[in-house]
Amino acid sequence: MTNPIPLHSRHRTVLPDWLALYYDRPIELTHGEGRHVWDADGNRYLDFFGGILTTMTAHALPEVTKAVSEQAGRIIHSSTLYLNRPMIELAERVAALSSIPDARVFFTTSGTEANDTALLLATTYRRSNQILAMRNSYHGRSFSTVSITGNRGWSPTSLSPLQTYYVHGGVRSRGPFAHLNDADFTAACVADLEDVLGQARGGLAALIAEPIQGVGGFTSPPDGLYGAFREVLDRHGILWISDEVQTGWGRTGEHFWGWQAHAQNGPPDILTFAKGIGNGMSIGGVVARAEVMNCLDSNSISTFGGSPVTMAAGVANLAYLLEHDLQGNARRVGGLLLERLRAIAATVPAVREVRGRGLMAGLELTRPGTDQADPDAAAAVLEAARAGGLLLGKGGGYNTSVLRIAPPLSLTVAEAEEGADILAEALRSLN
């Protein structure tokens, strides 16, 4: 017998108040296929957010579904205490793709846990609890990752196990250096980094940075900034952690990893990943060179990280992505979509900026004629787009409101045009 109490009421009764839901009338998604999902009322939506950049290739991708089903029919769980063929196979592929020399891979169940592990490695290796992080950043919801998050909206406590110093550079079009050209912007941020290092007591462990800030509204610095930072970090022995939870696996189109836009001084010391690699299955992980990964001197395992089922999904999903050149598709279709979005934005005074790379686009909304964030407008567009059959995301720093667009990387040109048309109508409703 069906429970007569509405699902939303049941949600509010048993789940935390701080567990956010989209829309005035939240929707229950029941199934998906390709780039589309359906809700419990039978409405069909073009998905331009992919479970927060997690459904990376496609909904119900047959290759992934088959791999999960076959592995579940053999064994679902064993833990890392036993040899695990799918985990080793995926680790081999990820290590080779990372470009980190003598790479070791540790799997977790989420991006939060991956960044948590990266912080453990860096602070242990460097014997320091001091961390450099970027303003406007987001790195997860655990106690340690919240403590380095530079975004007030996602920082529920000021308590911290780490001493964190925040550096300029993650946001190109706002802040004290926004008026500078790219070269001068980079030079100013490097000078700021040098100044921040002068405030620290002793050696710092690492700089952690998202190549494109995800929750912060898809903001990014000029290409090469983190490479320029690397010169400073190397002089001080400070590690570079690249948080690729949202930028990895070719989503930016031009590069497989976000750090490759800043590669003039080599790869990061530590790379973290999650979200898209599992296409919805719970996979995160850390890649680091062996001397860093192996610095822990106590026992450690993972009960659920590296699960045979999730690893089988990751192997199948990564193979599909590479064989079908979804990075190239993100570059081609994403480029067309960004051009279309910029043309639409030119007719909508509320859009301050369209930014992004590949299939990772952000539209910053402000009160027309000002730089003042307009969260009500962002909420209104989200609702209007949903009514038109399009699902979007939201984000931004404490002073911004951004619509986030990140569809599966198999998005077609026709679907990009369809989504742009729906979004155009939703934005024009603001006028």
**N- to C-terminal distance:** 47 Å
Number of strands: 15
Number of helices, counting only DSSP H or I runs of 4 residues or more: 13
In terms of per-residue confidence, which ranges show pLDDT below 50 for 5 or more consecutive residues?
none
Q: What class would the helix/strand composition place it in?
A: alpha/beta
Percentage of residues in strands: 15-25%
Report the radius of gyration as a whole number of Å: 21 Å
Strand order of the largest sheet: 4-10-9-8-7-5-6
Major sheet attributes = 7 strands, mixed
N-to-C series of helices and strands: HEEEHHHEHEHEHEHEEEHHHEEHEEEH
Instruction: Kindly report the average pLDDT value.
Output: 96
Shape: globular
Question: What is the share of helical residues?
Answer: 25-40%
